[in-house]
Hints:
elongated
Amino acid sequence: MTEQGGAKGAEVPPERLPLFADDPKLRRRRGWSGMLGAVIIGAAAGGITGLIAGQLPGLIVAVVIALPLVYVVLFSVRRRIWIEGTTLLVRTWGVRRIDLVAAERLDIVISDVRGTRTVSLLVNAGRRRKVVKVDLAVFSGAGGRELSALQLRRLADALLNNTEANGLVFSELLVAELRSEARGGAAAERPLYRLAAAAPAGRYVQRFPMEAVSRFVATLD
């Protein structure tokens, strides 16, 4: 008798989807302007110190102030986030992997900078370097921009099975956003905009924990 066996097909890895708008020219321009600003601030502080304490202290102050600012600019320019199945991949100087299903805490964070409000998902996996903020939408006035429907759907699907941090609540929020977009609702009618508008004015960062998000989701159609 002759044994016949079929080779098993190779498992197809989940598609990696970027959760950022990649504009290389804008990124480079932002990086150079940020580093120039850091150098100017450092030079100004060093110049004032130099007038008071001398050239060497002024130079030291300039370097001490400018270098951390340059680091922050480079960190921001290099930062990229992808979703691959239920895993977030975060690249800065290296690549971190954060499983959305296993995350121990999920929050919505609203930041307000000069009237521009950013709605973000804060994912905490409970370990060092396992915290990541994913920007979902940015609003200014009555308009703004959001992640695409595909990006929101992938996030919603990944959060659905998180029982540790009740990811179902956050999944329902993103699904409600998708439904509002599908109906053609204006930005002001969409859940993420309404959530951003509900944050008190004058606070740079506002955290909405799972309980607050759950109450908000319960009011949605």
